């Protein structure tokens, strides 16, 4: 029995379907991210869990209790809003204390818990400040403290880091994950940033046009993307389109210029398939080796690695190379391209739309 | 930006300052001086100075009565405008798109009609044979004398001042982050507590400026008490008018005007300080 479960949750605005048949089971203590481009229904899903948006159909259960139509102020969930939504007329202390006050926690215990929480988010000496006297990162931490101090069964994060600059965002990611692990709070985060979702979640739910397209651990999501959308949205990918052919009891994919041996299950000859190939899985070698030849057309240096664009018989391919202290590949160089056959991941042909 | 001369701000705001100086400060200064001039019923204003008018006004119960009436009518008007205007602005801000603009327009529309016309409108409604008395008579409550009483003045003032209360409150409601309300709800606050603890303190500055405008305008209002208060029910502005145009005692009129101005300033400044001081740090 899962801790938080969403069964067939659907949302219609008039005739427009925003979220369709959303099914998700979240275990206690898990960190789950809802990932997708803007307008994919991820925030609406979060708002339905929070109770700010009415569910059209389906059921939301928390720890066995039906929450589907409960009022937001009876759900007791901790929420961090994208705008932080701090109470501007209250001090940091009063902001964090508000939820405890509403729960009629005695004054002494309240002060104790507020202080402990401010310690945790490193704002011990900021209790008397007002929100507008704080920086973006500090406000973010106040919002987190305010949501966590009530010890909610579930913490909901709505794009919590999107208003911070890149460096601070990365720091806060690790900070957020550390606090979440320490407290063991079940957490659902909405984000459109795939690296953010991958680096801190236990599982990632990819959404597209109101539907779930894949639920997996970050590693599985990256290595075995189900659709072309996921393979290009989560990291970079080369998409190879071809036709399955049988040659001496071995399946090959005929990509036109080349035939590649593949180990695919459940395919028939003449099936049209799309394969995803990650740039870092391709290795560059001597011209006479590998499946095909390619000419380097562009080189991008990213610090820890390089990205090369190569012109090949299959069109443009992206190849990534780790920075191992050499800088000898230039535009115009010709290489043989090689990769392990299992690095090619077959994608679903029929897109969910 | 570094090419700005220090004199630039002065030059740019010069025309406005000139208008202000000529149209406000000069007449005010002249009125102030006039209030010290000696007045003789036979010969008029003399070029001598005296405190006589101030002593006269401040020692005569007749004027106390008028000032007291001006004060309490303004206070009641302000309070009623707050009581009606604040919820009105709140409801307005939560309305959906087409209705929002329509109702805002309805609230602002009275500003397009002259105060005098509206005052006459009220006197038709409130008169002995007006719609209000016909209705109360019809349902068996009898007739009421409303016209030429304080009640009539207050009703009309509230009606005229309402936009000045609704607009500042509406403005501060517009500045509110809607997620703040959700945040309070998510922390188990009831909708009423959210309204009281979260929304109300944030629109307080709007309510404060609204009250100041309404109080100031009510205390110095002339047309409404003049037309709906009748000949006997005086307020400060109408007595100033009487002194100037009926008694021709300009210095006495000037004295009452100055006293009204000073009293108004004292009340508004102390009100401002008492309430805004508490929230200045939080809301800027």
Descriptive report:
The complex is a heterodimer of chains A (353) and B (284). The longest helix of chain A is centred in the middle third of the chain and has 18 residues, at 166-183. Helices cover 25% and strands 34% of the residues of chain A. The model of chain A has no long low-confidence stretch (mean pLDDT 90). In chain A, strands 6-7-8-3-9-10 form a six-stranded mixed beta sheet, with helices on both faces. In chain A, strands 13-12-11-14-20 form a five-stranded antiparallel beta sheet. With 353 residues, chain A is of the alpha+beta class. Chain B is built from twelve helices and two strands; from the N terminus they run αββααααααααααα. Chain B has helices at residues 8-34, 52-58, 61-94, 97-108, 115-126, 131-138, 150-174, 178-186, 191-219, 223-228, 236-245, 250-283; strands at 37-40, 44-49. In chain B, β1 and β2 (44-49) form a beta hairpin. In chain B, α8 (178-186) crosses α9. Chain B is globular, with a radius of gyration of 23 Å.
Rg on CA atoms of chain B, Å:
23 Å
Strand order of the largest sheet of chain B: 1-2
Distance between the termini of chain B: 27 Å
What count of helical segments of chain A does DSSP give? Answer: 9
Q: Which H/E pattern describes the elements of chain A? A: EEEHEEHEHHHEHEHEEHHEEEEEEEEEE
On the 0 to 100 scale, the average pLDDT of chain B is 89
Q: Estimate the helix proportion of chain B, in percent.
A: over 70%
